[in-house]
Every structure is written in C-alpha cells, then in structure tokens.
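Researcher: I need the complex structure. Ligand is zinc ion. Inputs:
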Amino acid sequence: MMQRSAGPAVLLPSENAPLAIRRGALGRCPACGEGRIFGRYLKVRDVCDACGTELHHHRADDFPPYIVIFIVAHVVGYGIYLTETRFAGLPLALQAVLWPVVTVGLSLALLQPVKGAVVALQYALGMHGFGRARAVGAGANRESAG
Ligand SMILES: [Zn+2]
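Model: Output:
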C-alpha cells in the first residue's frame, strides 16, 4: 500500500521554501534533500534519482549568472578598493594576475550553488511546470496510498 514510505520524505513546494532553497544550494533535490540536482556541473537532472521528483521543469536561464556577476563584482570590486587604499605598495603585476584568478575562481565556485538555489526557488514557488507536476504527483501518491 504505502509504496513511497521507504523513500525519502518529499517536501511539497509551499511547505518550506527556505529549506528547499538551502537544499538546492547544496546541490540536492529541493523536494527530498537526498538526490542530486545536477548530473554534471550545471546540467540539472530530469528526475531526482532518490524521490522521482521531476526537475526538468526549471527555467533558470541566465538568472544564476546574473546573480553570480552581482556577487563577484561586489567582492572583487571591494577587494580592489581595499588593495588600492590599504596595500598601495602591492605590485601592479601581482594584481593583474590576482584579480582575474579570483574573479574566475569565485564565479566557477558560485555558479552551481546559485543555479541550484534558483531551481529550488522555482520549485518552491511552483513556477513553470513544478506546480502542475506537484499536483499530479500528490494525486498519484494519494491514489497509490489509498
Ligand atoms: Zn528528490
């Protein structure tokens, strides 16, 4: 009867949006927190391998890079400002190597967690196909349980 009881507890989107976003930022399925959201670096899996939640409904598009640019520009910009005001003796050649490396490294490090959080936010808000899939999935769960 209760076929899904052995699997992970699935979080319905409107139940706890901050938890879903935290799970997404950690690269985990926003619904169950156990399955992985990414198959590769930035490729979102079609379906969670732990709970079966459809993840292909996301439309993250360019929003994660916009967020990453916003964060990295502020961090690097402030770093350059601090370097120029407090460590004025730092050689320009060192800065010419340091800041591009910091910029690229920080961008690559932030892209996946930010994209995971954006996908999880869309899940939590029931955006795109997530709301419909959730209603269908909840109905299917009730039918299989009852
Ligand atoms: Zn899952």
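Model: Summary of the prediction. Confidence is low (pLDDT under 50) at residues 1-5, 139-146.
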